[in-house]
Prior knowledge:
Blueprint: H1 4-29, H2 36-60, H3 69-92, H4 98-109, H5 113-125, H6 127-164, H7 170-184, H8 189-213, H9 220-232, H10 236-253, H11 259-269, H12 272-286, H13 294-320, H14 324-334, H15 340-349, H16 353-378
Amino acid sequence: MIGWEDVYTVVVAMVPLYVALILGYGSVRWWNIFTREQCDAINKLVCYFTFPLFTFDFTAHIDPFKMNFMFIAADTISKFIIVVVLALWAKWCSKGSYCWSITSFSLCTLTNALVVGVPMLKAMYGSFAVDLVVQSSVVQAIIWLTLLLFVLEFRRAGIEGTHAIKPKPKTTIISSSSRVMEGAASEGGEEKDVEEAIGVAVDVKDELILEDSDSISPPFCKLMKVVWLKLVVNPNSYGCVLGISWAFISKRWNFEMPSIVEGSILIMSRAGTGTAMFSMGIFMALQEKLIACGPSLTAFGMVLKFIAGPAAMAISAIAIGLHGDVLRVAIIQAAIPQSITSFIYAKEYGLHPEVLSTAVIFGMIVALPILVAYYWMLEFIH
């Protein structure tokens, strides 16, 4: 049963995040310390340095040989259900959008389990629940955040590739027709009129080519090549893979990470969550309104996070045969507030960062009573 001491433990874990958030907000809105360009640089620092090392740090210490694979399967199936629903919505619904499908997937599935979930579920169900939450966080980092990164890179490559396609210069065609016109000018006014008409026709045709080129998309194979090259040089692609690889090796043969290596990783990884919240505060300060996405999108994000995500998890967990406390933990961990990483990626790739930042900030505020409500309701499930 949750007591006031447990609630205090959760609050203690959450308040430092808001301290970093307020410092980031004040550094721009009140004290004018950073310019807009410097704010973008801070987000890049988080995205490409502190977060990859943070991911490596917590994945490297998991024991992959003791994972609850039924729990992981239920989590995977629930996310697959959401992917299918969003894909069908984007394809067949008149208001469907692939960009909003990406953001909706983040809102439904990606959680901040290590900061909020660990103390909350430890108070509810004990240490075994903490192990399950950490396992889901590792799988989230290895599979789902990597998939999100891939989709965002693919979207960016598509946009940049479309802009990079250039039509043949208009002046080349017109200059050629002009030379013909000059040569025919001495042969009489009638031929000159004909040649001028041809020049106008060529001009119109070239304008049509120019308009059509705006809608041309680069070939799929070329897009994929660009995306893979981007992912190869992105340190986020390596953090989770190297971390879980080391976890397999160290647990299989009882290797210890050299202290000099671990210290080098920790010095940056410990700053991951704090700098991410600081960057979010900076982003809020640059917006005209405190709730940048508006109340309707805020409510939409809360519904996806605290209702749609847990509902998909409940369906998949019951279908796969989970029961008892494992089932309860599975559902509650799906209702944990929004992943901070999802905001950092959204800001870096320019896809609805205002929605994700609001989901993180307000999600953590309302998470405690919502998670407690889930805890009480699930006590009636046997």
